[in-house]
Amino acid sequence: WAPRGWKNAAYIIRLLSEFFDWLDKTNPSVIGINPKYKGNAHDRRLDEAAYLYRRNKAFLGHTWAENPCETDVGRMIRSKLLPRVTKGEPPEFPHGRFEELIFKGFRVSGKHDYRGMLITLLMHGAGFRVSEPFHLYVADVQSDPSDPSSALVLIHHPSAGVAPADWRNGLGKSMRASRASYLGSRWAMTPRTMLTGRAHAGWKSPLLDGEYYMRAWWFDPVYGKWFLQLWQSYMHEVALVDRSHPFAFINLDRAPVGDMYCIEAFTKAHEAAVRRIGLEYGKQFGTTPHGHRHSYAQRLRRSGVDKLNIKRFLHHCSLESQDYYTQPSTAESIAALQTASRRMKDVSDDHGHPNLLPCLGDY
């Protein structure tokens, strides 16, 4: 057989090992092939260290046991560990093209798509994931008390978030219940995380800013001002439509009008907007919706914002989660080398060292 790549070899070894385990259980006469073993004292120490590392990094690690159980730690035959490779270029939305995307890309037949503009602003200007704006209620947006010209946007947890303040009981008193209760009692619905099909919207257990919501941290702050102005225009459209749910983003140009707007429809609208301004569409170009979150993180890093604040603004639970979002691009790495080289050249000049390649014949 020709040698296999390491990834293929690891996959084949795993499948064969599982098959031999099954064969050993179903046919006692078969001698165990590639059995598990407990390893020596060194193996067990390494296994315990690896377990504790995973436990400390896991979101629910506090629920794990303090130490690993006494289990088998490996097999007699195992694949090699793959070499570590950098994750490559951060796929951020092209610098300098966002304003064109918002005001030209989302303009169709002379009419602005305010809904698409608002969702894109939440991703590019506040770093939200594409699914998170689809949990936004109309009541979750208001003028920022500290700056009335900017929007204060709070995206609440789909289930645990507090119900809107205008929800009243039979006595006219405000009901401070969860959003799951509110959706069930007021609208006979479940949260979008529990729906299936096109109406589903995910939730990735982000770090919340309060009980229980994420705040939009606008960067550049002008995006908060744009959002509020566009929101007011969008509200004029929504006010004319009957809805059977509290969600902010709804169908306006397709049946059934007034239903919840879905992520798939937005993704198609975003792709069309990207192509409308002459950009290629794809993850490698940073022009998919997730490219805006990468752009948000990169702009924070390049502006000198410290990691703890970037973690907060991206709503990451772990400080290391931002590493992929904030790693320098190849162009930045090359520029850093050139800058370092110029500094070294200046030092060499001060000490009289040659800057040009010496004549090889002299050696």
Q: Care to describe what's here?
A:
With 363 residues, the chain is mostly helical. It is 40% helix and 7% strand. It is built from eleven helices and seven strands. The protein has helices spanning 6-26, 41-57, 98-105, 114-126, 179-187, 222-238, 263-276, 290-302, 307-314, 323-326, 330-350, and strands at 36-37, 74-75, 107-108, 111-112, 141-144, 147-156, 213-215. The protein has a three-stranded antiparallel β-sheet, covered by helices on one side. A two-stranded antiparallel ribbon has the order 1-2. The protein has a two-stranded antiparallel ribbon with strand order 3-4. A hairpin with a 2-residue loop joins β3 and β4. α3 (98-105) packs across α7 (263-276), α4 (114-126) runs antiparallel to α6 (222-238) and α4 (114-126) crosses α8. The chain is globular. The two termini are 51 Å apart. The model has no long low-confidence stretch (mean pLDDT 88).
Topology of this structure?
Blueprint lengths: L5 H21 L9 E2 L3 H17 L16 E2 L22 H8 L1 E2 L2 E2 L1 H13 L14 E4 L2 E10 L22 H9 L25 E3 L6 H17 L24 H14 L13 H13 L4 H8 L8 H4 L3 H21 L13
Antiparallel strand pairs: 1-2, 3-4, 5-6, 6-7
Helix pairs in contact: 3-7, 4-6, 4-8
Number of DSSP-assigned strands = 7
Report how far apart the termini are. Answer: 51 Å
Supply Rg: 27 Å
β-sheet strand percentage: 5-15%
